[in-house]
Amino acid sequence: MRVPKMTAHLLLFCATLLTGCQSSRNPPQLIAVRRDLPPYLLDCQEGPKRPGPEATQRDAALAIIDYEEALEDCKAKLIALRALFDFASGPK
């Protein structure tokens, strides 16, 4: 019995595809790398204590300035952490 020409070609093609799936190499292994955070990035600047009822407008203004400085300190550290871990680029 003779095998049709198309069937022979199809069998040869399938055999070629199956051998392409085999590999003598080991698959790559994932390695977890621990990144230690710099200690200065872990703590934000302390905000001022809330002015009491006897505080003047000058005291309140200075407290607002101190709050803004503490906020800018935390924002800068958050930006540094994002750059360190490259959060903005998303998963790779």
Amount of beta strand: under 5%
Rounded average pLDDT: 80
Q: Give the end-to-end Cα distance, rounded to a whole number of Å.
A: 55 Å
What is the general shape?
rod-shaped
Q: Could you give the count of β-strands?
A: 0
| DSSP helix fraction | 40-55%
Structural class: mainly alpha
Low-confidence stretches: none
Number of helical stretches of at least 4 residues:
2
Largest sheet: none
Oligomer: single chain
Give Rg in angstroms: 32 Å
Series of H and E elements? HH
Primary descriptors:
92 residues, mainly alpha, 2 helices, 0% strand, rod-shaped
Overview of the structural elements:
- The chain is mostly helical and 92 residues long.
- It has a domain at 40-86.
- Helix content is 49%, strand content 0%.
- It is built from two helices and no strands.
- It has helices spanning 5-20, 57-85.
- The radius of gyration is 32 Å and the shape is rod-shaped.
- The two termini are 55 Å apart.
- The mean pLDDT is 80.
